[in-house]
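pinning this so it doesn't scroll away 📌
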Amino acid sequence: MEHYYRELVSFLSARLGSRQAAEDVAHDAYLRVLERTGSEQIEHPRAFLYRTALNLVVDRHRRQLVRQAEPLDALDADSRLHSSELQHDLQLDQRLALMQKALDELSRPCRDSFLLRKIEGLSHQQIAERLGISRSLVEKHIVNAMKHCRVRMRQWES
């Protein structure tokens, strides 16, 4: 699993805008995955690592928001909260949390097919071989996952 480290840091750097923050999150994700591997075998370590890292990004952002909580007068005076960049970041984090929630509602093979395709970039054939299912079932899982996530995101955002 160590060979995913550089790739994960690059992935997180693009989302967090800071290599140091990305390295911190990647380190924490590795620790969580390593703690878990002691108790059971992880079927798809790369997907699990990325999912853990994305969860940590969401948790990190929530903690930062709590730390930034101030009296309302101070919030009104703080121009950072009105900046379009911060609003954009908040919207992305909220959408990421909703997407995670939608993915959690899927069956494991459906979710794994989707994550292996979208996060790991595996072909349908590679996913079929890894999961031990047919290529057509992989395609159906990916389409169903995309439909489900799209529908749930629309429901939650309206």
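📌 and the second one:
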Amino acid sequence: MTQPTEDITERLHAEIEQTPARYRALLLRLVHSFREGIEADEPWPSATESFREGWRDAKAGRVQSIDTLWDGIDAG
């Protein structure tokens, strides 16, 4: 079962907060290298692909009201 992105992001933030400050630069390098590695294996979608995916979502009704766009942004 896949966890919602928000839950994973919250868990990542919690792990970062628990990492001693002196190791955070190393953690940043590790995350950066990880992102570059997966991007090389599976490149980010182009603007055209992203638009098509968004259009499919909109047509299928998988959208949220813009009024909720910033809900929870101050949580932390």
